[in-house]
Design brief:
Structural class: alpha+beta
Number of strands: 8
Distance between the termini: 37 Å
Shape: globular
Largest sheet: 6 strands, antiparallel
Number of helices: 3
């Protein structure tokens, strides 16, 4: 088992400390390598809008620049990066709430920089009840998709050097931190 290092939260009560920027994250990773001889295997940021601006008073510009800086940090430490981005509120007013990658905040820079863009939706938390038919989805054999407890819809909006536009439906086990029973589904109307 590999340890999970959380940078930016106190170890006592998990309250976020203020002022965590990408330079702080890089310094913490370097200390982890030097002090504990550990290699980073994945950098996950939750979420773009919470990364503290480094130098600029222009928060929007700095946030957009942070997309590229996060990717460079992954290159520096030779590991993949995952950067969560909040969707615009427009998604809340749709019948089917699976975001498109154009629904993310500041998406043009994210789209240019990202190798893969996934969108996620949990039907139970998006207006569906367990047992409801999710009319916007069907399995490849034409059968209906039914909302299940802890179901998750995963859309692959972009994949550099590969196919995109695919949608998958599965379940998520929060206690074991895993996604399972995943099947490719058809999104009526496309992504």
């Amino acid at each position: 088992k590999q340890p999970l290092w959380v940078i930016g939260y106190s170890t006592g009560d998990y309250h976020m400390t203020s002022g965590i920027g990408l330079d702080d994250v890089d310094a913490a990773i370097m200390e982890m390598k030097d002090k504990y001889n550990k290699k980073v295997r994945l950098l996950a940021f939750d979420y773009l809008q919470e990364i503290e601006p480094e130098k600029s008073d222009d928060f929007r510009k700095e946030m957009i620049d942070n997309v590229q800086r996060v990717k460079r940090l992954g290159f520096k430490h030779k590991c993949p990066t995952v950067l969560a981005v909040q969707a615009k509120r427009d998604v809340d007013y749709r019948e089917f709430k699976l975001p498109k990658y154009s629904d993310g905040m500041e998406t043009s820079k994210i789209e240019q920089t990202s190798d893969k863009v996934f969108t996620l939706m949990m039907p139970e938390r998006s207006g569906f009840n367990v047992g409801d038919e999710i009319k916007q989805l069907s399995y490849e054999d034409g059968t209906s998709v039914v909302c299940v407890e802890d179901g998750i819809v995963i859309g692959l909006g972009k994949q550099r050097w590969g196919r995109s536009g695919m949608v998958y439906y599965g379940r998520i086990d929060f206690n074991k931190n895993r996604i399972y029973d995943v099947s490719r589904v058809i999104l009526r109307g496309g992504m």
